[in-house]
Amino acid sequence: EIVMTQSPATLSVSPGERATLSCRASQSISNNLAWYQQKPGRAPTLLIYGASIRATGIPARFSGSGSGTEFTLTISILLSEDFAVYFCQQYNDWPLTFGGGTKVEI
Amino acid sequence: EVQLVESGGGLVQTGGSLRLSCAASGFTFRTYSMNWVRQAPGKGLEWVSYIGSRSRTIYYADSVKGRFTISRDNAKNSLYLEMNSLRAEDTAVYYCARDSTYYCSRTSCYSDDWGQGTLVTVSS
Question: Which of A48, A61, A67, B15 has its CA 20 to 30 A from that of A32?
Answer without folding.
Answer: A61
